[in-house]
């Protein structure tokens, strides 16, 4: 797009070095708007922008705090308190990616201008580069096997409910919970039906391979993975939490189930597993919804309007 870009790598630079670099960059460029997204960016970028008297400082909040434990919980609590203090002091505008998050932010920061702008994706670029058959062959999965992403306990119940269901559970991504999840798969007796693929660079090809995309979240904003699955016309089962019901109506673009309800998730998966026509219909509707309401053009337009409104008010 011809937009000059500076990248400061967290793997290569200390927080202090990044802060100094941001101060230099902002001082030389004098931007009209500095827009941050995560704790670290908000703290470092926000302070740097405030020191240079940037006309408009905006922060986007993508989700509520995760449930952590031990040292990770203490560290996140400290970051959160510092971030909240910085936001109260510097933020001229705050964006929540879902109505639920936006409502919480308005209570937390009553003096700031807060709006809801859903995440958006470039639906034209969300496409697979391999056929479903070629991708399944890579993992030795037959064309007739039902492929589901996520979930262990619900899949275990699915397999116990019917011995005629040829199903594979595919979990994409990595993190500190992987070893525990692999252990749970063994404990539930479904290890032979489960693939833990770790971090991948072929996510669109993998999503396109799934018959059912399952997102059993406890809390969410507007998850990008969900929007990508919708753009690829996948049949979706998701928790009825956070911003998910704002982009999926039950039985229109997907199936919604209560969070932490394994039985409900199992029933939703089996309903879609038994009906290829229903999967196809939900997938088409999901593609239409994300193209209409969560396209990056819609998000960019709403963000630009918020910039102009906030600059005018300031």
What does it look like?
By secondary structure, the protein is α/β, with parallel strands linked by helices. It has two domains: 15-120 and 296-313, Glycogen Phosphorylase B (Rossmann fold, 3-Layer(aba) Sandwich); 123-293, Rossmann fold (3-Layer(aba) Sandwich). The protein is built from 13 helices and ten strands. It has helices at 15-29, 39-51, 70-90, 99-108, 132-138, 153-161, 178-188, 203-209, 224-231, 244-247, 262-273, 276-293, 296-313, and strands at residues 33-36, 56-61, 93-96, 113-116, 146-149, 167-172, 194-198, 212-215, 235-239, 255-257. The strands form two sheets. It has a six-stranded parallel sheet with strand order 7-6-5-8-9-10, with helices on both faces. Helix 1 (15-29) packs across helix 2 (39-51), helix 2 runs parallel beside helix 3 (70-90) and helix 5 (132-138) packs across helix 8 (203-209). The longest helix has 21 residues, at 70-90. The radius of gyration is 22 Å and the shape is elongated.
Share in β-strands: 5-15%
CATH class assignment of the largest domain = Alpha Beta
Q: Architecture of the largest domain in CATH?
A: 3-Layer(aba) Sandwich
Q: Detail the poorly predicted runs.
A: none
Q: Report the order of strands and helices.
A: HEHEHEHEHEHEHEHEHEHEHHH
The number of helices is 13
Query: Quick one: overall form?
Result: elongated
Write down how many β-strands occur, each being a DSSP E stretch of 2 or more residues: 10
Report on the biggest sheet. Answer: 6 strands, parallel
* Average pLDDT number: 89
Q: By helix and strand content, what is the structural category?
A: alpha/beta
Q: Helical residue percent?
A: 40-55%
Radius of gyration: 22 Å
Distance between the termini: 29 Å
Question: What fold name stands as the CATH topology of the largest domain?
Answer: Rossmann fold
Going by CATH, what is the homologous superfamily of the largest domain? Glycogen Phosphorylase B
